[in-house]
Amino acid sequence: MLMQCPNCRSKDIGKIGSQQYYCWNCFIELSILGDEWTVHQVEADGSLSSLDDIFTAEERKIQ
Description:
The chain is mainly β. It has one helix at residues 57-60; strands at residues 13-17, 20-23, 28-33, 36-42, 48-50. It has a five-stranded antiparallel sheet with strand order 1-2-3-4-5. It starts with 12 loop residues before the first strand and ends with a helix.
């Protein structure tokens, strides 16, 4: 499985939990759901905002 950020295409992905990852290049949080990434922006208060609606299913697909 190729771990590549759907936002910036960086491979600098760190594991932060079970099925949860963080892109150290563009600072978004990624989770695996089936064979797709779910993408979230970490807000200043620590909450997460979904970014899935700005990516197509193909862009979020884990290779």
